[in-house]
Design a protein that fits this description.
single chain; alpha+beta; 4-stranded mixed sheet
Length: 380
């Protein structure tokens, strides 16, 4: 067992940390207040190779491993979780899905532009009646020979308004249940494809979240990913990797809030001494540091499993379940340590507390992670 990062990993982490501090931090409060998508910053992240981190260089990607990916996600998330989720979806769900399961033609046409940041991607699984119950897809894709006709609604789609490419999960053969589901590549601008208003969210307000409508959208047959009926398996395999990204996001939110609380505790005085010298605060910091380090090990283990070619369904579910719990609990503690200032936007921790909550919900709720974990351990 080797717990040391390589020199390359350290360089990647430091580059992401420097970018987050110098580029993401200025304006992060304003972007949150105005629900402003960071277009210019996404372009800069693309220039650094952050939009195609794990994509093979022959498709325009950076060719990094999953450890590098979670290091980048943690550092970005310490400062701006809205920016990091844009990176997560484009990498974990869209680029990974196309690289692992797309045809050569699909990779040439779409993956290269997604990996370089020329395109942004979205993953469209959730529906009004099919969030955690992903088998109950009501969006339909009728087979018309050389094309499909897509009808339905998708909800809570990250990058929904800004994306150029959408991976859409839809039901083709209802009588076959989850074996009748397909995955399709849909382009922005296809006739009948409409983007609804932006959602007014509690947290990650700088990310772009929309409802999508498909009304008789004609999708070429060559835009189906994999064989007929592969869609549900595609979604589940892709989400397993996505959970690693969201676990890393949760870890970063928790670690960022902890770092701010630690710094504040050494500056703020009460009863003639810095509050860090009071045991009540010191013990809070001790618990925070311990739980964050435990979450970090779970996240790194999941990333390592993926890099080693091991089955990572269990480790990614455990990482997301625990890291998201830590993010929620430790951001609340960070606000508490800041006292009244923790309720004020300029101290950042109230935003982090709001951002943390979604990590327990998207890409599989905490309850769904427990379903995945319990099935795995009971099966063994």
């Amino acid at each position: 067992m080797d717990f040391n990062l390589t020199e390359e990993h350290l360089m990647i982490r430091d580059a992401a940390r420097d970018f987050a501090i110098t580029e993401l931090l200025p304006g992060v409060i304003e972007r949150d207040e105005k629900q402003q998508f960071p277009d210019e910053l996404v372009n800069k992240m693309a220039d650094l190779g952050f939009m195609g981190i794990m994509v093979d260089p022959k498709y325009g990607g950076s060719g990094m491993d999953t450890i590098s990916y979670v290091l980048i996600m943690e550092e970005l998330s310490k400062i701006d979780a809205s920016a990091s989720v844009i990176v997560s979806v484009n990498n974990s769900l869209v680029c990974y899905g196309l690289q692992a399961f797309g045809s050569d033609e699909q990779k040439q046409k779409y993956l290269m532009k997604l990996a370089t940041g020329e395109y942004i991607g979205a993953f469209c699984l959730s529906e009004p009646e099919a969030g955690s119950d992903a088998t109950s897809q009501r969006t339909t894709a009728e087979d018309r020979g050389d094309h499909y006709i897509l009808n339905g609604t998708k909800n809570w789609i990250t990058n929904g308004g800004r994306s150029d490419v959408y991976l859409v999960i839809a039901q083709t053969h209802k009588e076959k249940g989850h074996k009748g589901i397909n995955a399709f590549i849909v382009e922005k601008g296809m006739p009948g494809f409409d983007i609804g208003p932006k959602e007014d969210k509690l947290g990650i307000r700088g990310s772009d979240t929309h409802t999508l409508q498909f009304n008789d959208v004609k999708v070429p047959k060559e835009n189906r990913i994999g064989d007929d009926g592969f869609g549900f398996k595609f979604a589940m395999k892709t989400l397993s990797g996505g959970r690693i990204g969201i676990a890393a996001q949760a870890l970063g939110i928790a670690a960022g809030a902890y770092e701010l609380a630690l710094k504040y505790s050494k500056e703020r005085k009460a009863f003639d001494t810095e509050i860090a010298n009071h045991q009540a605060i010191a013990f809070k910091l001790a618990d925070m540091a311990t739980e964050i380090e435990a979450a970090r090990h779970l996240v790194m283990k999941a990333a390592w499993d993926k890099d080693q070619g091991n089955n990572y369904d269990l480790s990614s579910a455990m990482a997301k379940l625990y890291a998201s719990k830590v993010a929620m609990e430790q951001t609340v503690e960070a606000v508490q340590i800041h006292g009244g200032n923790g309720f004020v936007k300029e101290y950042h921790v109230e935003r982090m507390m709001r951002d943390a909550k979604i990590t327990q919900i998207y890409e599989g709720t905490s309850e769904i992670q427990k379903v995945v974990i319990s099935r795995s351990i009971l099966r063994d």
